[in-house]
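User: Here's a structure from my thesis project, written as structure tokens. My advisor, Dr. K., wants to see whether a designed sequence matches the one we expressed. Can you design one independently, without my sequence as a hint?
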């Protein structure tokens, strides 16, 4: 099991929620919608021990939870990013995959994954259920993370 998947499962069972916004509240992480350049989905900062997540306010509103989940994944897993991490469209490094893996397993429910494994629902539907962009779901699939 990947790092992101394991952490998502752990949080869901410990906190009893899969809502990234609620989890950020519990951890006292701040979330802001901000005017950012078009190619920046979001970023997070860790200043004086305080974590803030910024989400591009021009993104489709249904992507808000996904971006929060992705940035939350960085905040919890990637200690090595210590001041600021920006997310550009098309970014594809190991940390990005881990953050997307975390977001996917946080937002996805087990019952839907069971249906997906049985071939009853498609990756398009996984994208609709999680409100994660199709290209992100496809990348996770190609990397064998789904
Ligand atoms: Zn990222």
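Assistant: Designed independently from the structure alone:
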């Amino acid at each position: 099991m990947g790092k992101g998947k394991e952490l998502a499962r752990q949080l869901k069972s410990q906190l009893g929620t899969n809502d990234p916004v609620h989890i950020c509240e519990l951890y006292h992480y701040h979330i802001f919608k901000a005017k950012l350049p078009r190619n920046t989905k979001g970023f997070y900062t860790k200043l004086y021990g305080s974590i803030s997540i910024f989400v591009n306010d021009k993104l489709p509103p249904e992507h808000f939870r996904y971006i929060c989940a992705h940035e939350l994944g960085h905040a919890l897993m990637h200690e090595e990013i210590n001041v600021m991490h920006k997310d550009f469209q098309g970014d594809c490094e190991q940390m990005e995959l881990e953050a997307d893996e975390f977001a996917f397993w946080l937002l996805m429910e087990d019952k839907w994954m069971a249906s997906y494994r049985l071939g009853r629902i498609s990756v398009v539907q996984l994208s609709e259920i999680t409100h994660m962009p199709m290209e992100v779901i496809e990348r996770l699939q190609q990397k064998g993370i789904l």
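When you compare it with your expressed construct, this may help: The chain is about 50% helix and 15% strand.
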